[in-house]
Amino acid sequence: MVNRDTCDVTVIHEEIVEEVRGTLPEVGGIVQIFKALADETRLKIAYSLTLKEELCVCDVAAIIGSSNATASHHLRYLRENGLAKSEKKGKMVYYSLADHHVHDLLSISHDHAAEGDDHDHNG
What we know:
Shape: elongated
Helix content: 55-70%
Distance between the termini: 23 Å
Low-confidence stretches: none
Radius of gyration: 20 Å
Order of helices and strands: HHHEHHEEH
Oligomer: single chain
């Protein structure tokens, strides 16, 4: 049986390896972003914020079917990881995405997943 996931021989292209190693950024911040979004509930909340520019904690709780405390916990986690921001307006707290990069990341991820579904069904 042929393994299509690995090279049949080991040949290291030193110049390419050194170039890439020298260019790799520190990825700790990127890891935190993906960890924060790896939770299905937080991802649903973040994606909801691509659909509406801002949502109050109560609305988020209703969207995800949770208590206000649970929604607040997830929103705080998103904020602490740089994905969302909050603003108190009177007795209400509203959340929005931190910036257009987060919006783009979520939109592109959604588009990519949808294309994957198309490939799975048509390919």
